[in-house]
Specification:
Keywords: DNA-binding. Belongs to the transcriptional regulatory Fis family. This is Putative Fis-like DNA-binding protein. Pfam families: HTH_8. This protein is mostly helical. The chain has two domains: 46 residues, no CATH class; 44 residues, Homeodomain-like (Arc Repressor Mutant, subunit A). Helix 3 packs across helix 4 and helix 4 packs across helix 5. The longest helix has 20 residues.
Length: 97
Amino acid sequence: MKKSVTQETNTRTFFSVPKEADGEPLSQCVRRAVDDYFSHLNGHDAEGLYTLVLREIEKPLLESVMEQTRGNQSRAAQVLGMSRSTLRKKLHTYSID
């Protein structure tokens, strides 16, 4: 039987890629992308950035988790820490089968 790990352990393990693995933590990737976004505004005001970032991150996150769980929505919901009905709504929103 598989052992459950806490969300904190999941976050440390899966999102903090060690430097020697030629990666960078997810938070740094997001920070770099947001900084890049601001640098390309050319003096224009940013609007709706929070929603934009969530949309940009949420779809690939859902796709990846669905792939890793081989389409098992119950397991995917558990991995994501949300209810199955919430997952189903999000999958529908992004047209993910």
